[in-house]
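Renewal narrative, Specific Aim 1. Our central claim is that a sequence can be written position by position from structural information alone. The example that follows is taken directly from our test logs and has not been curated for this report. It begins with the structure tokens describing the chain, in the order in which they were read.
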């Protein structure tokens, strides 16, 4: 049974990833990683897409229609599947992840920040509430959880791209620099994580338009990258056609070696035969 780290870079569009993810692009070019182009589900908003990525369901099925829906998830998700299989889940993430899968609302940021040995779906968590929380600190939080608790499934959720995208818009120096900085820190950790036995999946919830807006049906709002570092997948650049973000949850289940939830779609990404 493998361990999986899912890196969800908030607000990172496909073209920005292509321009900034030098090392991951190198791995795909040398067929040491798989690279896909994802057409995100609608609405292209954060909280609905968190639920979509972690449940494998579209918004019309999981019911989180906008960022204003602050209720906990009502669906089977990667954290519940991991816990019910006897594995350990962890997250270094924005506090909305805790609201969806851990404490629900109302919340108390002071108490929510550190959640270790929790009886909830997420056994160990470090959650931030400031939108401008540095990606460097978030990656350090995530690696602390890995080194200290050795979780089977770890969600890593930086928001620097989303923050700078909203302030300055797609195509800005600030947005591109935020993406490059996030990938720079991630690239320094990838080999460490792989040596520790983790498969790594890197994707995003949505992109950003020139006005710093996402919510609708524009390609720059919907299209995001998917990189997979695992010996269980066929490696190379497969961006000649779009794939669905509904593949993320069943992919993580396949890499973990656990059964997907009943509502998840069949896995269609290129896996190696056993």
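The sequence written for that structure reads:
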């Amino acid at each position: 049974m493998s361990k999986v780290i899912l890196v969800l870079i908030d607000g990172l569009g496909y073209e920005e990833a292509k321009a900034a993810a030098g090392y991951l692009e190198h791995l795909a070019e040398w067929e040491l990683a798989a690279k896909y182009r994802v057409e995100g589900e609608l609405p292209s908003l954060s909280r609905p897409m968190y639920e979509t990525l972690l449940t494998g369901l579209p918004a019309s099925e999981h019911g989180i229609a906008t960022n204003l829906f602050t209720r906990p998830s009502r669906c089977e998700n990667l954290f519940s599947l991991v816990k019910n299989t006897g594995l350990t889940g962890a997250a270094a993430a924005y506090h909305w992840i805790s609201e969806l899968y851990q404490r629900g609302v109302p919340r108390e940021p002071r108490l929510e920040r550190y959640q270790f040995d929790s009886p909830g779906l997420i056994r160990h968590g470090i959650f931030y509430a400031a939108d401008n929380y540095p990606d460097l600190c978030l990656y350090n939080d995530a690696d602390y959880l890995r080194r200290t608790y050795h979780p089977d499934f770890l969600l890593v959720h930086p928001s620097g791209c989303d923050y700078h995208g909203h302030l300055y818009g797609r195509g800005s120096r600030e947005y591109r620099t935020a993406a490059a900085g996030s990938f720079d820190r991630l690239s320094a950790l990838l080999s460490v994580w792989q040596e520790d036995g983790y498969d790594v999946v890197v994707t995003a919830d949505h992109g950003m338009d020139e006005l710093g807006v996402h919510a609708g049906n524009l390609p720059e709002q919907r299209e995001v990258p998917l990189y997979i570092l695992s010996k269980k997948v066929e490696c190379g650049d497969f961006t000649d056609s779009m794939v669905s973000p509904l593949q993320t949850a069943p992919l993580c289940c396949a890499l973990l070696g656990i059964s997907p939830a009943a509502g998840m779609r069949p896995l269609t990404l290129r896996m190696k035969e056993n």
